[in-house]
Specification:
It is a single chain. By secondary structure, the protein is an alpha/beta fold. The chain folds into two domains: 158 residues, Rossmann fold, CATH 3.40.50.1970; 167 residues, Dehydroquinate synthase-like - alpha domain (Dehydroquinate synthase-like, alpha domain), CATH 1.20.1090.10. A seven-stranded mixed beta sheet has the order 1-2-9-6-5-3-4. The protein has a three-stranded antiparallel beta sheet with strand order 10-11-12. Strand 1 and strand 2 form a beta hairpin. Helix 6 packs parallel to helix 7 and helix 7 packs antiparallel against helix 8. The longest helix is centred in the middle third of the chain and has 21 residues. The model has no long low-confidence stretch (mean pLDDT 95). Bound molecules: nicotinamide-adenine-dinucleotide. The site of nicotinamide-adenine-dinucleotide (NAD) has 31 residues, from helix 2, helix 5, helix 6, strand 7 and strand 8.
Length: 344
């Protein structure tokens, strides 16, 4: 099912409920170069058979400028020209690397994504942000550039480990918190295993989250206002993801709990919401608490992209389904993190 979404001057083709094999109908095999990680290459050898493919080690540690330099050197060796189309097939690490590489290689080539993790399907592949890390600083070097296409093939989810399903649900729960009270209620009424056994239900939730993200990015592609709402839970998440070496979804989960605590003080959020959120996160195999090293978190926050002087644009909840951007002094966040009760 093709849906075309317009972002400024770019039109992105969304192929929902499709298969990776269908790609060659629209993008000639000779013109495409697949980029993937070692896990996906090993799990799905048939997808890469007869395809020009670049493979990087799986995991966040590959999201570096060194990887971009190494892939660029390999592309030059392959004589990849500006008419090439890069296709990132993998989780968010691969979509971020592919989008960034395609934005800078020879000053820009076309690219598309086949997200294979739930997190990449609902979030990382969507919206045009691409980037790599520098030391512990997440996505600090990057671009905003839309892909030509995103193809959704949920059959990949059959091999996704349960912990990665949980990570994807951290972002799904984020959409529910900031935009969609009905989705929050739907998720509360079921659990992770139900979705793992019903890809139809998973597809529906994926499409719903993609629609929320597209709508937000269409209104504010360059994150001057509304798009910031998508960072709910992410300020602290980005600070702990690399310093504590935990998965993005787990970091977001903890970040959302911290944000609920802060919201109860600054935006009038009913204090019982934090308890509801913690219960929902646990229902989807996500952590609601963790001991935080406040000094280390604050060190990273100083360099956060959303900081302006002594304030940081922080996303607070007003109620389930409604969020707001609020400039908060770093000192307040520092105090809240120090008061944060890791014993959920
Ligand atoms: N650009 C954005 O807007 C955006 C948004 C959210 C997250 N992100 C980024 O996305 C990354 C997290 O994404 P992720 O959780 O997909 O990480 P990931 O790419 O590291 O994938 C997680 C693990 O799952 C494996 N995997 C992926 N698909 C699989 C499948 N079908 N079967 C078996 N194993 C599979 C991967 O090999 C990896 O080991 C972070 O770097 C984060 O910063 C970017």
């Amino acid at each position: 099912m093709l849906q075309q979404v317009v972002f400024g001057s770019a039109t992105v083709n969304y192929y929902f409920q499709s298969t990776v094999q269908a790609l060659s109908q629209w993008y000639p095999t000779a013109q495409t170069i697949f980029i993937t990680d070692q896990h996906i290459a090993a799990l799905y050898p048939q997808v890469f058979l007869g395809r020009k493919t670049l493979v990087v080690p799986a995991g966040e540690q590959s999201k570096t400028m060194e990887t971009i330099a190494s892939l660029s050197a390999q592309l030059l060796q392959m004589q990849a020209g500006r008419d090439t189309i890069f296709v990132g097939i993998g989780g968010g690490v691969i979509t971020d690397i592919t989008g960034f590489l395609a934005s800078v290689y020879k000053r820009g080539v076309r690219f598309g994504f086949v997200p294979t993790s739930l997190l990449a399907m609902v979030d990382a592949a969507v919206g045009g942000k691409n980037g790599v890390n520098l030391d512990v600083h997440k996505n600090i070097i990057g671009t905003i550039r839309q892909p030509d296409f995103i193809l959704f093939d949920t059959s990949f989810l059959a091999t996704l480990p349960r912990s990665e399903w949980s990570n994807g649900f951290a972002e799904i729960i984020k959409y529910a918190c900031i935009f969609d009270e009905a989705l929050f209620a739907q998720l509360a009424g079921t659990d992770l295993s139900a979705f793992q056994h019903d890809f139809g239900a998973a597809s529906q939730v994926i499409a719903r989250c993609v629609a929320w993200k597209n709508q937000t990015v269409q209104a504010d592609e360059h994150e001057h206002g509304q798009r910031k709402l998508l960072n709910f839970g992410h300020t602290v998440a980005h600070a702990i993801e690399n310093t504590e070496a935990i998965a993005h979804g787990q970091a977001v989960s903890i970040g959302m709990v911290v944000a609920c605590g802060i919201s109860a003080h600054v935006s009038g959020l009913d204090p019982t919401v934090a308890g509801q959120l913690k219960a929902l996160l646990q229902q989807y195999g996500l952590p609601a608490g963790r001991a935080l090293n406040a000094d280390r978190v604050m060190e990273v926050l100083i360099n956060d992209k959303k900081r302006k002087g002594d304030d940081i644009d922080y996303i607070v909840l007003e109620k389930i389904g409604r969020a707001a951007v609020m400039p908060l002094p770093l000192s307040l966040i520092d105090r809240e993190i120090r008061n944060y009760d890791s014993n959920h």
